[in-house]
Amino acid sequence: MLRYRRYRVFLVFAVIAVFALYKFGSSSTSWKEQAARLSQAKANDEDPPRLNWQPRPQVAKETKKFEVEVPAAKTPQPKQTPPPIAPVSRPVEKKPTLSPKKPAAKPTPVGAGGVENDDATKPEFTPLAEGGQGALEVTPLPSISSVEPIHWKKLSEHFPVPSESLIKLPSGKPKPVPKIQFDFKKESPAQKQDRETKLHVIRDVFKRSWSGYKEHAWLQDELKPVSGESKNPFAGWGATLVDALDTLWIMDLKEEFAEAVEAVNKIDFTTTTRPDIPLFETTIRYLGGLVAAYDISGKKHKNLLDKAVELAEVLMSAFDTPNRMPETYYYWRPDFSSNAHRASNRVVLAEIGSLSVEFTRLAQLTGEDKYYDAVARITDLFDEFQNNTRLPGMWPTYLDASGCKMIEWTPEINKPLQKPLPGKDLDQELPAVADGPVVKQPEETAAATVTEELSPGGHKYVPLEKPEPFVLVPNGPNPTFKPPPPEEPLPMWLGDPGKGKIKGWDADSGLAKRQLDSDDANASPVEDSPTPIATETDAAAEPTETRPTCQEQGFASSSDYGSEEFTLGGMSDSTYEYLPKEYLLLGGLVEKYRDMYEKSMDVVKKHLLFRPMVPDENDILFSGKLMVPSLSAPSEKIGDLEAENAHLTCFAGGMFGMGAKLFDRPEDLDIAKKLTEGCIWSYNMTATGIMPEAFDAVACDSREHCSWNQTKYWETLDPRADARLEQYKDAMKTYKEQMSSASAWYEEELRAMATPPPTLEETAVGAVEARPTPTVVADLLDKRQLADLEDDVLEQQVTPLKESPAPEVSQDRESVMGGEAEEGEGPPTPVQSVAESPSPSRTLPAFPVIYTPKVPPTHEEYIKNRIQEERLPPGVTFIKARGYILRPEAIESVWYLYRITGDPYYRAAGWRMFEAVNEHTAALYGNSAIDDVTRTSPTLEDSMESFWLAETLKYFYLLFAEESVVSLDEWVLNTEAHPFRRPT
């Protein structure tokens, strides 16, 4: 009998494969050669050569005629003329060609849809030409970019302010205010040369960034300076272009300025790919940039003011709310903006409190009081709310601007909405009522009760009786239970009905199924009635609709629970910054801005400013954040101070300095110097010479005396040193107990192994010599061999060893390799004979696995490791954000302090800051944000915010420009460093 062999099958397939390759591989030209000829012909515009295909052999055809009787085929049909073929607008080629249309180089935004698409194409076959060949052409589909974009429209306001109720701009001559800028003396020729050299270096850095933006991101929001791409985080209205307009003018780049002013005309503020408009960012960057460029260029470019008005009209629509507080994220599309809206009950303080300077200056330039009215109402609410916060004098980072205080809901019993049922009388008149239409009753049924009202079809409304609730009665017979007839199915329960039943169910008392078929003659009258309308009696039983009641209010806390944050940093900063600046811009005619500023700064000095503990004991100040709990939370102190210094808070030095001069607060000038010096120290402490976004330090108990205490610093870095040691001691105690228990168990197991095992008793059959089971390598044997081996073992166990013949030690090579023995070879023998089998041995017991507690690092080791791994500068306990995104706040205060004090120290400090920033942020097409200022070689983040050109480089440039350029006694700079001319 021939057995199946796997390797023989593989051999047969291999022979067939070799024969096929030999036969068909040399019969024609290879695929590579034919493809090469096709490519060569296409490159030379020649007819492609035909592939050398061999004709397929003829197939034998059926010789017998196939006949089928089809009556319809014999019936004569009139001839019909086919419809004319529409002429083809494009010529039909005789040769198969593919002519795809090249997509547009850049996608075009749809506008409101926010979708960018390339030109789409689809293949289309033309009719067959002469020779039977079809020409394949690609016809472009209509581009989505051709769809008309959605534009913002000026709609009638839901909550307009009458013209007589507008808060008008203050009129009259500005009050005299103290001089802010230092009275500088004439510089020496050497000082001038050094200053101008640095000035040119700063301008060259600006020009490189501007050229990169112009070449790779023109009219887009921002440039990606590493990759040379662009992005639009705002509304896609060219944020960098508008933001840098006044910087171009200040740096005397007049040609670039004129080109940018012309490009502003291409910006359409009535449409954007973004569904919402961020009010704060749009106001300080776009509106502020346009107004400042118009101001500083001598009001010669009227298109800048026109574009500012166009944008302002869009932004003013965000103020159309019941209390005229704006939506900080305005959804501008007409389908949504046409509805009435309220301001949010959780808005960021800076986003609603940093609009005054821009809208006030626009009102002064245009003479439109509505722009000032919009921000003056916000100021009034801030003034009212200032003394009613958890920290009187300051405002929390989040507040409720909705103007709606939710009071207890008053239940209102509303009549149910009665709707006519489908029928033939749906067009009858339905009188309107407060809560919905009701069905008009015929006169002859006027005296009918509510439940006897007629439906449009003329049927009476008969309410369905509510069934009793289903209650399952546990175990026990029910005398009222009657089982259904045998021919009907049982009810919905399973099992013995006597074990439980539905209370009140009677098989004879009603129908076994829902009566929904009106055709049944024996049906209940309810079946012929439409679904009844709920009556007043039924409505009283149903849950009644309740509506919230809104009570008008001003600003309020966004939440009564949890802590609130009070800070000069992010989400609050420019609200406080704009108080003295708005006072200046209004010529000192509105005294409330001074009062609000002084109240808030008194609270800041008392609760937020602290002196950090540093090794060199520098007399510097940081402004932290205070977390104030809810009024209901019991607390002995007003709040918890986080000893933080953030880059965004570094503007405070300049604000305190200006407020000190403006409002005659000389003690604040000393605070301004210490705050500015704190940010300079923060730049000098890192490996790159750049301050991180935010970090924590140790706050001193006193601002006057603060000596370096390394023990206190280490305790702040490692507050769990004692707890870690106690935890290790507890772990070691547990470890010793586990080891003692495991050792006892192990010794007991060893003693049990030393006891000899019981001997085998002789059986009645006779003494059988015990011998070990032969060792077999199972992986080398198949199932059949294992079965044969098992039989052999059983046979050997029954037969005495001395009577069994010595087995032959042999092994079938093919069986070991996975095959089968040849016919007549017999079963395979065990791999190892019985005589050679080793005697079994008992293994030692495994000792239980017990983990040894790891010895914790000492307090000193922990501190040194943490400082090294986190690269902590001395005095810093934690770095919250290690990056730098080209922020301007530190150099802003340095510039203010130089202009206010005239101290050349600030120029030297500013130059060190500039060199460090430019060295570590320089990219191929500009300057980029970096990821970690504590590394000597940080990674570029491929991001260049628009304020790099609008603020940071502008402040560096103004620091070394002549002091008359943008004098603090003539100009007011907004939070984006856009200068507005002060009234005279």
Descriptors for this entry?
984 residues; 27 helices; Glycosyltransferase; three-stranded antiparallel sheet; alpha+beta; single chain; 25 strands
Q: How is the biggest beta sheet arranged? A: 3 strands, antiparallel
**Proportion of residues in helical segments:** 25-40%
Strand percentage? 5-15%
Q: Tell me the CATH architecture of the domain at 569-721 and 865-880.
A: Alpha/alpha barrel
Q: Which CATH C-level class of the domain at 569-721 and 865-880 is it?
A: Mainly Alpha
**Molecular shape:** globular
Mean of the pLDDT scores?
Answer: 76
CATH topology of the domain at 569-721 and 865-880: Glycosyltransferase
Question: Largest beta sheet: what is the strand line-up?
Answer: 9-10-15
Low-confidence stretches: 26-32, 46-68, 70-75, 77-139, 413-462, 470-484, 486-542, 762-770, 772-837
Calculate the terminal CA-CA distance, rounded to whole Å: 119 Å
Family: Belongs to the glycosyl hydrolase 47 family.
Pfam families: Glyco_hydro_47 (PF01532)
GO cellular component, one term: endoplasmic reticulum
Keywords: Calcium, Disulfide bond, Glycosidase, Hydrolase, Metal-binding
Entry summary:
With 984 residues, the protein is α+β, with helices and mostly antiparallel strands.
Topology:
Layout: H1 6-25, H2 31-43, H3 71-74, E1 108-109, E2 116-117, E3 121-125, E4 136-140, H4 189-216, E5 222-224, E6 229-231, H5 239-243, H6 245-250, H7 254-264, E7 276-278, H8 279-296, H9 302-316, E8 329-331, H10 334-337, E9 347-348, H11 349-353, H12 356-366, H13 369-385, E10 398-400, E11 404-411, E12 472-474, E13 500-502, H14 525-528, H15 536-541, E14 546-552, E15 556-557, E16 564-567, H16 573-585, H17 592-607, E17 609-610, E18 622-623, E19 625-628, E20 640-642, E21 644-646, H18 652-662, H19 666-684, E22 694-697, H20 710-717, H21 721-754, H22 783-798, H23 813-816, H24 859-870, E23 876-881, H25 889-901, H26 905-921, H27 947-960, E24 971-973, E25 979-981
Antiparallel strand pairs: 1-2, 3-4, 5-6, 7-8, 9-10, 10-15, 11-14, 12-13, 16-19, 17-18, 19-20, 21-22, 22-23, 24-25
